[in-house]
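Hey team,

Filing this mostly as a record. A colleague (T.K.) asked me to run one chain through the structure pipeline before their review meeting, and I want the input and output archived in the tracker in case anyone asks later how it was produced. No errors, nothing strange. Just documentation.

Input sequence:
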Amino acid sequence: MANPKNRSVAVKESTYQWEGRTRDGKPARGEMRAATETVVQNLLRRQGITVSKIKKLRLKSGGKITDKDITLFTRQLATMMKSGVPLLQSFDIVGRGHANPAVGRLLLDIKSEVETGSSLSQAFRKYPLYFDALFCNLVGAGEQAGILETLLDRLATYKEKILAIKSKIKKALFYPIAVLVVAFVITAVIMIFVIPAFKEVFTSFGAELPLPTQIVISISDFFVEWWWAIFGVIGGSIYAFLEAWKRSEKIQMVMDRALLRAPIFGDIVRKSVIARWTRTLATMFAAGVPLVESLDSVGGASGNHVYKVATQKIQSEVSTGTSLTVAMQNADVFPNMVTQMAAIGEESGSLDGMLSKVADFFEQEVDDAVDAMSSLMEPLIMVVLGTLIGGMVVAMYLPIFKMGQVVG
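Output structure:
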């Protein structure tokens, strides 16, 4: 049964452009997604349209569908539905107007699922690569409660905030990594091409070179002889590490734990994880999803295996009657302020509001920490680069300085 189903899903990728005339003889044209040309013809005939031409469109493959694309779609869909635009028409407008053809096809496929009788949450669940359990659960809760546009708006706000905090973390990590890569490339170029030229000049001196110059020339000789092995080992190691990180849960656990303990970045990573954890739980709880069920999505949304395991422990304790605050304290991964705010929220019956305030606080903390770290890293990196490049330049010019002193 699985194979026919997969074939039918693949056929739905086809989009047909048609031309024809209505019962009144007026020209009409449009696009339709269907299994075959025959299906298009039959559907249009039922609408009273005589088809004169049907052409299968070859859409561009488009780029990869990113979190940013899904976030933008969620905001657009929420805005249109709040403005009173019908659901199917909203999908049609957003899908056909999207800059990424891959997103357009995805949305038109979801629209087709809804047209054939699936609920919106069921249609989203058929594409788990783009819509996670949290997204589908919130949409399902909105459909059941009759407040889909409200929950879509809340979901869009949630995804925008999560996307913003991810962007801040990437910004914090990208700058030093980019500088280190550029520094390595510049050093390799100097070692492979520049220093050998100096070496040829120095051999004509016939005198013993200073120790710093000898060290730099020895390193340069190693680079010249083994550059292919150096770049191969470094590139292969990075690729192997990233692949292992993707596939091995143990390595992810080790790296996530190491990131949390890192001297400079650890504090920023921890604050961003707590912000995402509390924001997710607040959004789920505010939507009326039961606490135990909400915790299913919270661990994965935090983006850190240490907090994912801690969330599973919290969920287990909460399901047996323990309060959320006590379970969070037992997990021993949250600061005292977070558990205190959760306790106040539980006692006052406004847990979602308190958790939202905690998320706001930690998001601001991440923002400030990233700005502070950027200000600190710039002079630090300049000192490191200056010492590295300057050291090599001085080592190469020492023999020239000595020769000048002898001539003088």
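Quick notes for T.K.: Residues 16 and 56 are 4 Å apart (CA to CA). DSSP finds 16 helices and three strands in the chain.
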